[in-house]
Design brief:
Structural class: mainly alpha
Oligomer: single chain
Number of strands: 0
Strand content: under 5%
Radius of gyration: 17 Å
Number of domains: 1
Shape: globular
Helix content: 55-70%
């Protein structure tokens, strides 16, 4: 699966505040209009397949643009500590959501940096323009059951993490033009944590990242615990006790 050092939700939030237009701006504006419409109709948590497909396409567009990737690494990746500090120090009526977003960005950076660093970044942008979220899901059906579930869960949680962080940015920056109930904020916080931790868990079981034993940050500790629990299961199905998909189905 394709990823970058910068979470797609964070990139899209950056493009909102970018002083000059980017070729992706029009696509992103259309996506934002769709996002607002769906949230108004279905709420934050009932994420529709069309949103995931379009968000995945935006991710591919970002990865296919070498100049944008370079700008993102310079403006976001290299300054992640300052960005996190700035976000956390803002006045907000949603301090828990702010904290969870900061935790997600920090944890994502640790995982994605490990995935990206061994790769020739010049080749990241060499991605088929025809690739789609559903196309990957369909192609994964050809894999053995265990491998299929690993890859599908990795793909789903990574796109859901993009979605949940973008929505969090919109809420915290007062740019979500939909009234949000406190219960939905709480559910979004839980979704951010679940998708971040599952992204780490499935990155580990796919052999592309492992949490440092010296990292005592709360969410990385949770990831290590979940890896240990899943690794000890006799059936080796590695299916999470409460995956992001199962969480959504419960609501």
């Amino acid at each position: 699966m394709q990823t970058s050092e910068i979470n797609t939700g964070q990139v899209l939030n950056y493009l909102i505040h970018r002083n000059k237009k980017h070729p992706l701006s029009e696509k992103f504006d259309l996506f934002l209009a769709l996002l607002h419409g769906y949230i108004h109709q279905f709420g934050i948590i009932n994420v529709q397949d069309e949103l995931l497909e379009r968000l995945f396409r935006l991710r591919i567009d970002i990865l296919s643009d070498p100049s944008l990737l370079e700008e993102m690494t310079r403006e976001l990746g290299d300054n992640i500590d300052q960005i996190i500090s700035d976000q956390f120090n803002k006045e907000s009526q949603h301090k828990k959501l702010e904290l969870f977003l900061v935790q997600a960005l920090n944890t994502y950076k640790k995982i994605a940096s490990s995935i990206i660093n061994p790769i020739d970044k010049g080749n990241i942008s060499n991605i088929s323009k025809d690739i789609s979220y559903q196309g990957i899901v369909d192609s994964l059906e050809l894999l053995p059951t265990k491998d299929r579930e690993f890859h599908k869960n990795y793909l789903t949680t990574s796109v859901m993490l993009d979605y949940s962080t973008l929505v969090a940015f919109l809420i915290l920056n007062d740019q979500l033009e939909v009234e949000i109930e406190d219960e939905e904020i709480e559910q979004l916080c839980k979704l951010i944590r679940l998708t971040t931790e599952e992204f780490g868990v499935y990155s580990h079981f796919l052999g592309i990242w492992s949490p440092s034993i010296d990292d005592e940050s709360h969410w990385v500790v949770n990831i290590r615990i979940r890896i240990g629990i899943l690794d000890r299961r006799s059936d080796k199905s590695f299916k999470s006790a409460e995956s992001a998909i199962e969480f959504l189905q419960k609501l």
